[in-house]
Design a protein that fits this description.
The chain has 9 helices and 9 strands. With about 250 residues, it is of the alpha/beta class. It has one domain: Phosphatidylinositol (PI) phosphodiesterase (TIM Barrel). The protein is globular. The chain binds SN-glycerol-3-phosphate. SN-glycerol-3-phosphate binds next to loops.
Length: about 250
């Protein structure tokens, strides 16, 4: 369960994405070997309704293909190489489905599933993800997050026992989520951008009974500062570094 994880929680952002291609099985496996407490991944629907793990709306940046994920059926997505662009050592890596990640890691670690239906705010992603969580019996080992409040409201109705992290966009665009207006979305944790994570915000959220998990924190100085400010977790591309800093503090 979220509250049973070490404090502050080290979430491997898209896996150990400083050292392996983001959102791949290899990046998740490496994150666990590097001592991450949890992994973070991005879930979205492809054209034929499967839940796939990819951050961007298009495959262009992370694979050898081009096009929009929601216009490509799984069969086509699976032919893409999701490793070569990162480093030739990772050629042959595939775009995973959420089902595959749950099967491989669901009983090994805690998983933050970001609902990334940002091009189709009211699609079936919440139903599909909730069904997968129930089928794999992972209600106690996942956390949902999103910048899309509609998706969070929807999935909370479907599976209310799973905690929710409300992602706040950086700066003015995310001000509503960091303010009391954010209370209209059920959530146990606020996920602010690093530039907005300052002691007053952290203390206010704690007074409201909420956790604070900050994204995306990669420099040693920033990691150490946020730990000193008593955040409850960070998303980092480099879980090994964050572990070292947490151990030095202890
Ligand atoms: O979930 C934390 C972080 O991943 C949110 O930002 O842009 O990586 O989805 P982004």
């Amino acid at each position: 369960m979220l509250n049973d994880l070490p404090q502050p929680v080290i979430f491997a952002h898209r896996g150990a994405s400083a050292h392996a291609p983001e959102n791949t099985l290899t990046a998740f496996e490496l994150a666990l070997r590097q001592g991450a407490d949890a992994i973070e991944l991005d879930a979205k629907l492809c054209a034929d309704g499967h839940v796939v793990v990819m951050h961007d709306a298009s495959v262009d940046r992370t694979t050898d293909g081009s096009g929009l994920v929601d216009e490509m059926p799984l069969e086509v997505l699976r032919e893409l190489d999701a490793g070569c662009r990162f480093d030739s050592a990772f050629c042959g890596e595939r775009v995973p489905t959420l089902e595959e990640v749950f099967a491989a890691f669901g009983n090994k670690t805690f998983i933050n599933v970001e609902l990334t239906n940002y091009r189709s705010l009211r699609d079936d992603l919440p139903e599909r993800v909730a069904e997968l969580v129930r089928r794999h019996k992972l209600e106690r080992s996942v956390l949902f997050s999103s910048f899309n409040p509609l998706a969070l409201r929807h999935i909370h109705r479907l599976i209310p026992e799973v905690p929710i992290g409300l992602l706040a966009l950086p700066g003015a665009a995310g001000a509503w989520a960091r303010s009391p207006l954010g209370n209209c979305i059920p959530h146990q944790a606020l996920h602010p951008a690093i530039q907005d994570a300052r002691p007053p915000l952290i203390q206010t959220q704690h007074r409201r009974g909420r956790r604070v998990h900050v994204y995306t924190v990669n420099s040693p100085q920033e990691i150490a500062t946020l730990f000193r400010w008593e955040v409850d977790g960070i998303f980092t591309d480099d879980p090994l570094l964050a572990r070292q800093i947490r151990e030095e503090r202890a």
